[in-house]
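User: Let's play a game. I give you a shape written as tokens, and you guess the letters that built it. Ready? Here's round one.
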């Protein structure tokens, strides 16, 4: 494994990349992280490892941009509560493993999406049509369950018997008359 890139931090807050022999800024540090480069940021005088402090500064600057919030306020409060707590010692490993899992899944989904797009528009349209057909089939099956099986003949609605209709109407009229009497 190659040794990490050494970045020196001077008292004037400037960062110096010893590999390229150039001064860099925090956006260069972000680029190195995105490219997966290993590096250490050291105090130029004392040699103290300042990597965590500089990365916290990067996170702070990102979190102050309204469009880039990643840490919800409630998460921040819960994290602060865990400082000094015995269970707080479990958090670094948990967060590291969670982020590794998230990144792996994100890369897998991006790869699957890329494969689907690379197959061409025709294949994508066919897959979308197949998915739509499966959804319609599932919807039809659910509809059949609630309305009775499509294989069984549906009951036909019979015309009501005129005598029954007259009898029911008479009962309704009698009930209405009783209600009118009670309401007076």
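Assistant: Ready! My guess for every position:
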């Amino acid at each position: 494994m190659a040794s990490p890139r050494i970045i020196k931090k001077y008292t004037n807050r400037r960062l110096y990349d010893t590999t390229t022999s150039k001064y860099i800024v925090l956006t260069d540090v972000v680029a190195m992280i995105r490219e997966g480069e290993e590096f250490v940021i050291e105090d130029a005088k004392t040699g103290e490892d300042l990597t965590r402090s500089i990365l916290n500064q990067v996170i702070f600057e990102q979190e102050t941009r309204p469009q880039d919030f990643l840490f919800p306020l409630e998460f921040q409060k819960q994290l602060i509560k865990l400082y000094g707590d015995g269970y707080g010692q479990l958090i670094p490993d948990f967060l590291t493993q969670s982020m590794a899992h998230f990144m792996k899944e994100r890369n897998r989904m991006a790869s699957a999406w890329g494969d689907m797009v690379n197959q061409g528009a025709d294949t994508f349209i066919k897959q979308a049509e197949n998915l739509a057909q499966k959804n319609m089939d599932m919807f039809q099956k659910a509809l059949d369950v609630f309305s009775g099986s499509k294989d069984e003949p549906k009951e036909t609605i019979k015309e009501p018997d005129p005598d029954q209709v007259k009898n029911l109407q008479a009962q309704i009229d009698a009930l209405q008359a009783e209600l009118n009497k009670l309401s007076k």
